[in-house]
Design brief:
three-stranded mixed β-sheet; 3% strand; 239 residues; single chain; 11 helices; 66% helix; globular
Length: 239
């Protein structure tokens, strides 16, 4: 009986160890996967992202033949007007920070606390890219934490220029519209290389809620905000 109890106790300790270590190992494996993919994207262009796949699935529920509008263009073929407009609108400290803007996060946390729910994230361009590439659009502190970890990976592996290049090629600009080239053709029948300051500013303003503006068009707020961004674009520093 004593030997049996010892065997049972040893087996219980083994199971307890794996109950503790199992989730930790799983989390580490997930982080390793993200890091390997970040290293891959540092050299090779992503053909799709988590956000793209989610939206394509949603579109194909209504129309099985639906396709996304997306065309990759290199950094040099994206107008500096759009680069400057996006930096001004989305992340004025893009050049300086290491992936996370702690001051913006603190302001977002205070705002969420006042409203008793997650309504803003204070995300940088790098964090938005992390979310677009790998995560979902859900709002939670757990997802925000993962987003920050991936953002640090991106900043460690990639130069700012590459981060901005990927971001501008995969970010959502409308329903089924992803990337600067598709956006320029969808809204202006032009190319990403030929976007004017006014056009670029309007596209940048759309980013927080692209499907809304795709449906509604130019609202009073969008026009006012775009004018404000256009006035600041010449001060934006680019990688």
């Amino acid at each position: 009986m004593g030997k049996t109890r010892k065997v049972a106790a040893k087996s219980s300790r083994r199971w307890l160890k794996w109950l503790i270590l199992g989730p930790i190992l799983l989390v580490l494996l997930v982080q390793l996967y993200f890091f390997v993919m970040v290293c891959w994207y540092a050299m090779f262009n992503p053909s799709s992202t988590s956000f793209m796949r989610q939206q394509l699935a949603a579109l194909q529920e209504k129309n099985p033949e639906a396709k996304l509008k997306h065309q990759w263009v290199p950094y040099e073929r994206i107008s500096d007007n759009l680069k400057r407009a996006v930096v001004v609108s989305e992340d004025s400290g893009f050049i300086e920070h290491g992936g996370v803007d702690w001051e913006a996060l603190e302001k977002a946390y205070d705002k969420n606390k006042r409203r008793s729910k997650v309504v803003g994230g204070g995300s940088t361009i790098t964090q938005q890219l992390a979310k677009n590439l790998f995560l979902s659009g859900s709002r939670s502190y757990l997802r925000k934490g993962q987003e920050m970890i991936i953002a640090f990976m991106l900043e460690t592996v990639m130069p700012k220029r590459r981060i901005l290049e990927i971001y501008l090629n995969v970010v959502e600009f409308g329903r089924g519209v992803f990337g600067a080239e598709a956006a320029a053709r969808h809204y202006y029948r032009s190319s990403a290389a030929k976007l004017s300051p006014a056009q670029a500013a309007r596209l940048a303003v759309m980013l927080p809620n692209p499907r809304y503006y795709d449906k509604r068009g130019v609202t009073n707020y969008l026009a006012r905000r775009a004018n404000a961004i256009q006035r600041q674009m010449r001060f934006a520093e680019l990688p």
